[in-house]
């Protein structure tokens, strides 16, 4: 198994030649680096759009859906972010690749429901971009279960995970979660609230761990409580991670990725031992 990016994402070496990826970027240096890296890693031939007119033409010229767009915030002919607005309005999943960044800009980007943003400010930028692309193209293989008695909380987490291209199921109670897990053994990650009326997050985790180990299912607990002891109690109940609300999107996605990466590595090791 190969690994990608600074985080060490497990990568099987699969090619994605069928993916249609557009790169909206006017820098010759970065377009060359991105094109070369995605071709050698994934056998992807990207479509380069050096200005806003190119981007519009690329969308109009083909009826084939765009799998993913990589876009600078500002392009010639769209110096005020019109290119990103254009992609978002078309519901095209987009990774922003930018050299300009500050906190207020970050807030505006995340409000647009982009997939990710990558900064051009380091030598690993293109590798980080390649990892983000690979995650988006492979996340659909991961089935995630959200357990929360709050419809608002379920909708928020579900929309975040679907933005990253995960398959998502939801349960409004611990009892329903047990039913869904029994019927869907491909679920690899469960995100569960602590405070629920029928079965709380601790008891739900204990019941699950009686039959399903961490090598099959990773569990992240969440809570709005200010009680810092909850995380220790949850981990001792068999959970793998714990987060306090409100989440920062980047941290949430990172925690999800880390748990799924760990699951893949454990499963790969178990397969290698079985063969040996």
UniProtKB/TrEMBL annotation:
Q: Which SMART domains match?
A: REC
Give the lineage.
Bacteria, Pseudomonadati, Pseudomonadota, Alphaproteobacteria, Hyphomicrobiales
Statement: the UniProt record of this protein carries the keyword Transcription: yes
Q: Which residues carry this modification: 4-aspartylphosphate?
A: 193
**Gene Ontology terms: biological process:** phosphorelay signal transduction system
Does Transferase count among this protein's keywords? no
Q: Which domain of life is it from?
A: Bacteria
- Domain Response regulatory intervals: 20-135, 143-260
Pfam families tied to this protein: Response_reg (PF00072)
Q: What keyword terms does UniProt attach to this protein?
A: Phosphoprotein, Transcription, Transcription regulation
Name the chain's protein: Two-component system response regulator
Which PROSITE patterns has this protein been placed in?
A: RESPONSE_REGULATORY
Q: Which residues cross the membrane?
A: none
């Amino acid at each position: 198994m190969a690994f990608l990016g600074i985080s060490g994402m497990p990568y099987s070496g699969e090619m994605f030649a069928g993916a249609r990826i557009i790169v909206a970027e006017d820098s010759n240096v970065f377009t060359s680096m991105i094109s070369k890296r995605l071709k050698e890693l994934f056998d992807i031939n990207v479509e380069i759009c050096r200005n806003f007119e190119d981007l519009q033409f690329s969308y109009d010229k083909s009826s084939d859906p765009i799998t993913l767009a990589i876009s600078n915030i500002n392009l010639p002919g769209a110096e005020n972010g019109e290119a990103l607005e254009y992609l978002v309005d078309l519901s095209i999943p987009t990774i922003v690749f930018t050299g300009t960044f500050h906190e207020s800009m970050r807030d505006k980007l995340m409000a647009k429901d982009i997939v990710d943003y990558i900064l051009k400010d380091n030598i690993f930028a293109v590798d980080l971009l390649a990892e983000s692309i690979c995650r988006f193209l492979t996340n659909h293989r991961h089935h995630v279960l959200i357990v929360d008695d709050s419809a608002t909380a379920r909708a928020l987490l579900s929309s975040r995970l679907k933005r990253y291209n995960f398959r998502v199921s939801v349960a409004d109670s611990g009892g329903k979660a047990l039913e869904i897990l029994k019927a869907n053994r491909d679920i690899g990650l469960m995100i569960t609230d602590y405070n629920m009326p029928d079965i709380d997050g601790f008891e739900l985790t204990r019941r699950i761990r009686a039959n399903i180990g961490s090598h099959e299912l990773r569990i992240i607990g969440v809570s709005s409580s200010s009680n810092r002891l909850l995380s220790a109690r949850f981990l001792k109940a068999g959970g793998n991670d714990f987060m306090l609300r409100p989440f920062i999107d980047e941290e949430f996605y990172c925690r999800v990725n880390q748990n799924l990466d760990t699951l893949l590595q454990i499963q790969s090791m178990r397969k290698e031992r079985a063969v040996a």
